[in-house]
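User: I'm curious what two different proteins look like when written out as structure tokens. Can you demonstrate?

Assistant: Sure. I'll show them one after the other, since each token string lines up with its own sequence. Here's the first protein:
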Amino acid sequence: MRTFGLTPGQQVEIITAYAAAMKLVNAVTPGPGWVTAGVFWLPSTATAPFEIIGLVSVNTNVLHARLWDVTAAAAVPNSEITIAATVETRVLSNPVPLTGGRLYRIEMEVIGAGGSGTLFTAGLTGVI
């Protein structure tokens, strides 16, 4: 078992605040076809990039991922990112402000005429 400690200071950096497990989703056309890839509680307000690693089975598909604020019942503005590659690809959003004390959902959809997409992991990265 590995543990981590915090050093007192003005800032604390957390490498990954949350990571969703791998999820395979069949392509749909037309969208939307959002499905839940993971859910997490954010205890404190933060601004962080949303990161995904994924791929699509055919190059005509596009994997979309976003954060959904369950508490506010709305998509988190500027959190949607996409992948259209058939090899594992990492994509980060610009830093997204998130309100603490809320439940968030990681959602994904794959738009295309056939095939699928795989979200290997998703989460917040570089929380400061």
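Here's a second, unrelated protein for contrast:
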Amino acid sequence: MSSHSYQQHVDAVKRASMVRMTTDSYLSGLRAVNPACRFLRYVNIAHTLNNIGATVARANGWICKDSSGNELAHKSYPTEFVLDLHIPACRQAVAAHCKSWITSGYDGIFGDYLGKPFSYNKNHYDSLVYHADGSLYTDSQMSQDMIALINEMRAQGCGILVGNGIPQATHSYGYYDDSYKALSDPISQLLDYVMIEGSFGWDASEAATRTVTDWLKTIQMYGELPSRNLYYCKPIGSTPEKALFAYCSYYMAGVNPDEPVHYSSVSTYQMSAFWVDLMQFDPGTPMGGMTQVAGTNVYRREYTGAVMYVNASNTTSYTVEGTVMAPQTGLLIEKTVDAVTLTYQSIPQGVPADVDGVPIQDGASLDVPRGSQVKLKVPLRIDI
């Protein structure tokens, strides 16, 4: 939450129990909007930017090197240098920086890159990572240094700790690799929450490469993460259809993206009305596990208040419950509803839904009697 207006922040915070922030001037006002919400300050744990800064790191000899002995920067952000967290004084400085945000009023730290082995970040650097002294910085060393840093942050009182970068909890680069589990599980076990980023809300450029196997592996991923009381989920979905695909996939995996923790992210579409509306819907509790619809790549899970379907195929459409499900889409059918007014927001995807078989037209509102069946292809605003 950094590049949006104050009102957009307010709209997100009203519905969130936890948010990440970088716009510090908004903090006191947003806390008044929702006193129960917990606010986390973004810190890029492994880099100088949004952390202790390059000037301090350079003066103390805490910047990692590339294979030529030059300071190693993120290739997309040339002023963002990699920190040598193997140096105890560097870890202590990072922890002190995080503590300063707690002192200023935040409830905890959102640690970007907290837990990513360097080899997993191979798309981010033009070289292997070397310590400030020129020796190779291995993944196993990085894992141990992250553990030491977390312990230092705990000792300094850095509040709630969320890690973004646990390899088996991210699907950002088109692959899933079990080989990092031994390195990252000990890290995630020390965190309060694990950020689950990009797992289901793939963008259009990646969609063609995402197979059913990829989707099932992502579902499996949730069960493989070390035992957590809560998950910290990023709502991805650049279109209403993609938002519903992500939403139903979370529930297919048994992870509720709304309760008890919800993450409002920085991208404009993630704060758009169609995702905010989904946050208002509670499907209830699961009535069983995920099952596959025979003869399809569609998966189903039933909750006390709704039935959800996901077409996990990236190539094939299927007809389910009388609805044609395009590749990588979700379908949510609310079992019964109280008397409400449904308003379809104007999104140019055509007629998105029906109530007892009667289509809801673009921009229209209608009263829905108690007990009606509501079928959602894209989210609707529900006004009670």
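A detail about the second structure: The chain has a mean pLDDT of 76.
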